[in-house]
Specification:
31% of the residues lie in helices and 15% in strands. With 253 residues, it is an alpha/beta fold.
């Protein structure tokens, strides 16, 4: 007698591998629960890079005192691939640090604090001008392998790639090749094609790569926020017979 299924996660890409006829149900997801934490993670990743924290951590380990010039956010361009709930929250905070913000969205429209909004098909325009590229798109057949050799070649040699979406959006072998060639500045990676990341992965050994174990969206407040989204959907169903955060079986997210 189940008619509606609510998911405590915001991403639902793993559902389609289950042997369930999801089209029979009304589906909703916990959109927004990650917005604050992932936004903070991305800003932390940017500052980690510009302020040399990785280098300083290695120097401390070797008791080395070596100064060098640090960089700043002002004047840098942040490219947001997927201007959804998280991307639109990230944009004004990046602007407050003096960054220029560009990004892609399925349906182009004016978005507050985003200097240029491009259609998803115009990805290259965003990649070419960005100093930091953050991946926020859901994993679907259209986005699987979206960031591969061709996309990476469009990035600046000094640009950093930040992935807090799904590992499958990036072709890891082609990212490894780009890092070895020095064709991008580096990467901060929280998600991977296979998790845990294999101990044999070359990604572990790059000094210009920061690896975290799929924690960007975690917070002690996660469950309470997810249940709040469920409650909002429940009220909306009761009053208007409509879901607030629906899942589209056709679109895959």
């Amino acid at each position: 007698n189940v008619e509606w299924v609510h998911f405590l996660s915001a991403g639902v890409d793993r559902l389609w591998d289950m042997d369930v006829a999801w089209s029979k149900y009304r589906l909703s997801k916990s959109v927004g629960v990650h917005a604050a934490t992932i936004t903070e993670y991305v800003l932390g990743a940017i500052l980690y890079t510009l302020k040399g924290f990785g280098t300083f951590a290695r120097q401390q380990h070797h008791h080395t005192w070596k100064r060098f010039w640090l960089d700043e956010c002002a004047g840098k361009t942040l490219g947001i691939i997927g201007l959804g709930t998280i991307g639109t929250r990230l944009a004004p905070l990046a602007k407050s640090l003096g960054m220029r913000v560009v990004g892609t969205v399925t349906t182009p429209r004016e978005i507050p604090d985003v200097d240029e909004v491009h259609a998803s098909a115009d990805l290259d325009s965003v990649l070419r001008q960005s100093d930091f590229v953050v991946v926020l798109v859901p994993l679907t057949p259209d986005t699987h392998g979206l960031i591969g050799r061709q996309a990476l070649r469009q990035m600046k040699e000094t640009a950093w790639l930040i992935n807090v979406a799904r590992g499958g959006v990036i072709r890891e072998d082609e990212l490894v090749a780009a890092l070895r060639e020095g064709s991008i500045g580096g990467a901060v990676l929280d998600v991977f094609e296979e998790e845990p990341l294999s101990e044999a992965s070359p990604l572990w050994d790059f000094e210009n790569v920061l690896i975290t174990p799929h924690v960007a969206g975690t917070t002690q407040h996660y469950l309470s926020r997810a249940l709040r989204v469920f409650a909002e959907n429940h009220v909306s169903v009761q009053k208007q017979d409509a879901l607030v955060t629906p899942v589209s079986v056709e679109k895959g997210y």
